[in-house]
Amino acid sequence: MAAFQDQVSIAGYTVATMSIYYFGVMAINALIVPYPEYTLVEEIRSGSFSNYLVKPINLVLFKMCNMLAWRVPKAFYLVPLIFILNHFSSGKPDQVSLSLITLGSFIVSLGLSFLLMFFIKMILALTAIWLTESGWLFFSFEIFSSLFSGELVPLSFLPVSVQMVNNWLPFKYFLSFPLLIVLQKINSSYEIVLGLLTQLFWVISFYLVYRLILNCGIKNYCAYGG
After folding, report:
1. The pTM is what?
2. Does some domain include residue 197?
3. What are the backbone angles phi and psi of residue 9, rounded to the nearest 5°?
4. Potential cystine with 37: which of 81, 94, 125, 184 (Cβ 3.0-4.6 Å)?
5. Looking at beta carbons, which pairs linking 80-86 to residues 24 or more positions away fall under 8 Å?
6. Confidence of residue 30 (pLDDT cuts 50, 70, 90)
7. How many domains is the chain built from?
C-alpha cells in the first residue's frame, strides 16, 4: 500500500492485481509445491530406501501420491480462506474474469509446474547417495527459486537483462507463468501454448535426468541401516 501511494501502477501491476498476485503465490505454494526431498534424503541415510529397490514400489508414483494426498483436504479450507482474505484486502477476486480456455490453460500449467518442481527436487534428494550433507543444495535451490520464480516479486520488477536470461531457465515456470495466465497478463494464445510446451520440455528433460541419476545411484547405493 505504501508503494502505491504515489503511483497507480508499478511495472504493469495495480494495487489490486498485486494483491491478487501475492494471494496466488500463497495458494500455489500451499497447494502444489512438493517437498519430497527431505523424506527421501532421510530414507537414503537410514537405509529404508532399499524398500523401493527390492519391493514392487514405483518411487515416483509413491512420492507423487504422498505429495498430492494431503493437499486435497488442505485445499478445502485454504482456497476459501485465501478468497476471504483477498476480499478484505486491496484486491477483489471478481476483478479477474476467466474464460474456459484461460482457466484450462491455468490448470494444465499448474500440473506441469508441480511435475517440474517434483522432478528437480527428486534429483536434488538423490544426491544424498553420494553426499554426506545435501541440505546446502536444497537451501541454494530455494534461494534461486524464490527470486527467479516470481515468489518474492513479479518477474517484471527485475532488470530486463535478468528477465532475458531467466526466460531460458525453468524457474519462471514454477509460479510466475501460471500466475500470469490467471491474471491475463499473457493474452496471446501463441504465448500461452509456447509457455506450456516449454514447461513440458523442462518436465521431460528433468525426468530423464532423474532416471539417469537414479540408475547411477542404485549402482552406488549402500544401505547401512534397517
Report:
1. 0.86
2. yes
3. -140, 155
4. 125
5. 82/23, 82/26, 82/27, 85/23, 86/19, 86/20, 86/23
6. confident
7. 1
